[in-house]
Amino acid sequence: QEQLAESGGGLVQAGGSLRLSCAVSGLTFSNYAMGWFRQAPGKEREFVGGISWSGAGTNYGDSVKGRFTVSRDTAKNTVYLQMNSLKPEDTAVYYCAKATTRNRVLRDRGGYDRWGQGTQVTVSS
Question: 109: helix, coil or strand?
Answer without folding.
Answer: helix
